[in-house]
Amino acid sequence: MKKILLLSDNHSYIDDRILSYAEAADEVWHAGDIGDLSVTDALTEKAPIRGVFGNIDNHKARKEFPLVNRFYCEEVEVVITHIGGYPGKYAPAIREEIQETPPQLFISGHSHILKVMNDKKLGLLHMNPGACGKHGFHQVRTMLRFTIDGKKIDNLEVIELGKR
Length: 164
Description:
Elements: E1 2-7, H1 16-23, E2 27-30, H2 38-44, E3 49-51, H3 59-64, E4 68-73, E5 76-81, E6 85-86, E7 89-90, H4 92-100, E8 105-107, E9 114-119, E10 124-129, E11 140-149, E12 152-163
Parallel strand pairs: 1-2, 2-3, 5-8, 8-10
Antiparallel strand pairs: 1-11, 4-5, 6-7, 9-10, 11-12
InterPro entries: Calcineurin-like_PHP_lpxH (IPR024654)
Domain Calcineurin-like phosphoesterase: 3-150
Organism: Mesonia aestuariivivens
């Protein structure tokens, strides 16, 4: 079983609360808009990180992280990208890939809107953790944590970090 912390849209912001949740995780997954790589450096000190770069990220982040990260965690196939949309409105850049070979879990960021929903047509679970940074239009900073045990995604929890 793996305990996962999922976050996105730091826009160079990191604090001790985020790091304490990272320390309790087996892996941290980042859905892009990292900003300064000191964010992912700090997270990596707490747990291994898997991530993607976002539209605000510079060449250093783009060298460190891919645009799309497809991998297995336990027996769950995962796809993470920053601009991914959501069921029924997937972004053009990722739509074909997830329709041709749907993962069990599709993760995106970018919107700053926390959203978890099933795509019954493709048989996948979509997650967007919202934004944990202080830059953007969101009112409450959020992250998600959950477990993956074999093929089972479970124990989903919304973490509210307070107002921007």
